[in-house]
Amino acid sequence: MKPNEGEQWDGQSEVKKLAILTGGGDCPGLNAVIRAAVKTACHRGIAVVGIQDGFRGAVEGDFRPLEPKDVSGILPRGGTILGTTNRDNPFAYPTWVGEERQVQDRSAEVMDRFKAEGIDALIAIGGDGSLSIALEFAKQGLKVVGVPKTIDNDLMCTDLTFGFQTAVATAQDALDRLHTTAESHHRIMILEVMGRYAGWIALYAGVAGGADVILIPEIPYQLRSIAEAVQRRARLGKHFSIIVVAEGAKPLGGDMVVERTMSGRTDPIKLGGIGAKLAADLEKVTDMETRVTVLGHLQRGGSPIAVDRVLSTRYGVAAVESALAGDFGMMVALQGQDIVRVPMAEAVHKLKQVELDDPVLNSARSMGIKFGD
Ligand SMILES: Nc1ncnc2c1ncn2[C@@H]1O[C@H](COP(=O)(O)OP(=O)(O)OP(=O)(O)O)[C@@H](O)[C@H]1O
Ligand SMILES: O=P(O)(O)OC[C@H]1O[C@](O)(CO)[C@@H](O)[C@@H]1O
Ligand SMILES: [Mg+2]
Question: Site annotated as Important for substrate specificity: where (predicted)?
Answer without folding.
Answer: 129
